[in-house]
Amino acid sequence: MKALELRVGKTAAKRLAEEGWHADLVDGLIGASGGPKWLILGQLDRVLVGELFAGRNRPLDAVGSSIGSWRHAAMAQPNPSEVYDRFERAYLTQRYASAKPTVAEITEVALGLMRCLLGEGGERHVVAHPWLRSHVVTARGKGLNGAAPGPGLMAGMAVAALGNAVSRATLPLSFQRVVFAHQEARPLVPLLDGFETQYVALSEANVFNALMASGAIPYVFDGVYEIEGAGEGAFWDGGIIDYHFDVERLPEDQVWLYPHFSNRMTVGWFDKFLPWRANRQVSSDQLITLCPSDAFLAQLPFGKIPDRRDFGKIPESIREQYWRDCVQESRRLADEFHQLINGSDPLAGAVIL
User: Fold this and answer.
1) Which among 51, 172, 304, 343 counts the fewest CB atoms within 10 Å?
2) What is the pLDDT of residues 232-291, one digit of tens each?
């Protein structure tokens, strides 16, 4: 049984066939929202940054929302494998006082996880990395969605959800996309068009808060209400707009890499609740997707990868062991990718889309 599924668009397949896997192959990297789902990708990420991108010479646009941007921040550190190790340990062992923790408690745990990830001086490495250009995606709330948690925000989110059910084109009435990007990065079009997208230069003063905002799910943990360079506002999880990103909007003359936890994608967070938009098998000619196969997922404990609903749903001791088992199993994804990039056929086993 193959653990890793390689899905490649026609343009990307042509490039791979001609050049093979090498450090400067891809122009961009996508990191999706997904909370604990990242645990299935951690070992694969280590191979990406430690092997595939070793010796890279040209800039790489790393676009991420929520945990996707956190993963990219780990990649930007001088010893990314060590950072992944300590962040993974902290993530696996996070604890809460009850099955239904308060927003304040979840926020405090999330702050601790971010401090663990960045360590001493980690902000500087995100800002000054020689080739990884982070694009940390957040969503600034408009109107009622610019409020602190309470009846106003609840009403604003409900209006946004109803409007989005009619058309995604209504969502800019409720949220503005704010991207905290490497100072030398250029706006990414058409991937991040629309939503009155505002770019703010990443600096050591705003990296921490930008990353926290990018994962701030309303009513799960607190939003960030002021970020250096972007001013005041309620900055929320970038996944509200760009949950898995609209991968059909990649630059036509580039090839992008997407390590993802599924071969199915949902563009925006509100789309999760719409069967006609959620979990669609989509791609683009320019995209290389690396994801676990359905057969691999089926043999995991509970037949799935970790997700946020595991808290409170699975007893703590079982939840932690289950997550550890998934991490252990995920080494197969990393091993198969290592074999792929070092093998004679760069498209071995690929699904050409």
Assistant:
1) 343
2) 899 999 999 999 999 999 999 999 999 999 999 999 999 999 999 999 998 899 999 999
- Provide CB contacts within 8 A for 317, sequence distance 6+: none
| Average confidence (pLDDT) over 144-169 | 95
Model-level pTM greater than 0.85? yes
User: Mean pLDDT over residues 130-152, rounded?
Assistant: 95
Q: What is the 3-state secondary structure (H, E, C) of the chain?
A: CCCEEEEECHHHHHHHHHHCCCCCCCCEEEECCCHHHHHHCHHHHHHHHHHHCCCCCCCEEEEEECHHHHHHHHHCCCCHHHHHHHHHHHHHCCCCCCCCCCHHHHHHHHHHHHHHHHCCCHHHHHHHCCCEEEEEEEEEECHHHHCCCCHHHHHHHHHHHHHHHHCHHHHHHCEEEEEEECCCCCCCCCCCCCCCCEEEECCCCCHHHHHHHHCCCCCCCCCEEEECCCEEEEEEEHHHCCCCCCHHHCCCCCCEEEECCCCCECCCHHHHHCCCCCCECCCCCCEEEEEECHHHHHCCHHHCCCCHHHECCECHHHHHHHHHHHHHHHHHHHHHHHHHHHCCCCCCCCEEC
